[in-house]
Amino acid sequence: MFLKINEEIRSAKEKVKEKEHIEQRIKELKELLDGYEKELIEFKQKLTKEELDIKKLEGITLSNLLAVILNNKEEKLDKEKKEYIEIKIKFDQCNQKVSDVNEDLSKLGKELDRVGNANIQYKKLIKEKEEQVKSIGSEASKEKLRELENLRLDLCTSIKELKEAVLSGENLLARIDDAQDSLSSAKNWGTLDLFSDSIIVSIEKHEKIDDTQVKLNKIPYLVDKFKKELSDVTASFETISNKLEFSLITKTVDIFFDNIFTDISVLTKIEESYDEIRHLARYVDECVIDLKREKERLEDEVVNIDGKINDFIELEV
Fold this sequence. Notes:
Blueprint: H1 3-58, H2 62-69, H3 73-114, H4 118-133, H5 139-194, H6 199-217, H7 219-233, H8 235-241, H9 260-315
Helix pairs in contact: 1-3, 1-4, 1-5, 3-6, 5-6, 5-7, 5-9, 7-8
C-alpha cells in the first residue's frame, strides 16, 4: 500500500544524508585550505628572502669584494641558489595543493546545489505519509519498519563513502602512473647524462626533472585526500591511512655543479623517488582492492534489507 511513498521517502532521506556529508566535506576542505594558505604565505616570504640574499651576493658590495678575495663568493652563491630552489619546490607543491582544494570545493558546491532542498522534500513526504497512516498499522509495526529503513540508510551512506574512497584512490593511482612515467624518463636521461658531456642531454634531463616535479606536486594533496577518505570509512581503514605517507623528491640542483659527482647525486635521487612512488602505488592499489571488496559486501546487505522491507510492508503495514 505504501510502496511508492516509502521509496520516495527513502530516496529523500538518502539525499538528506548526502547533503550533510557534502556540507561536512566542504567544512573539512575549508579547514585544510586555511592551513595550506598559511603555509603558502610562509613559503612566499622565505622565497622573497632567498631572492634578496642571491641579489646581495650577485651585486658589487664590500662583502662581495671580501668574498672574492677569500675565494668563497661562488660557494656562497651556489648555496643560496640551492636553498632558493628547495624552497621554490615546496612553494610550488603547496600552491598546487591550494589549487586542487579550490577545485574540489567548486565541485562540492555544485553537488550541494543539486541536493539543496533535500530537507524540505523529505519533510513534505513524511507529512504526506503521516496523513495516510494515522489509522493504519500498529506502533510496533511502524517502529520495526523505521529500524529497517534506518539500517538500510546507514548501509547506503557507508557504500557512498566507500565509492568516494575508491574514486579518490583511483585518481591518486592515475597521478602516480603519470609521475612514474616521467620518473622513468628522467632516470634514463640521467643515466645518459652521466656518461655524456653533451649540453643538449643535460638540458633534456633537467626538462624531464622539471616535468616530473610538476607531476609529483599533484600527489601530496591526493595522498592527504585519500587518507581522509579512508579514515571516514571504518576504523580499520583509518589505521591503514595512518601508514600512508609520501615525500616529494628534492631536486638536486646539479645545474650549478656540472660534474660527475652531482650527476650521480641527481640520478640517485631520481631512483630513490622512483622506488618510493612504486611502493606507494602498490600500497594504494591494495587499499582500493580492499575498499571495492567491502563495498560489494555492503551492497549485498542492502539487497537483503530491501527484501526484508518489502516482505514486512506486504505482511505487516
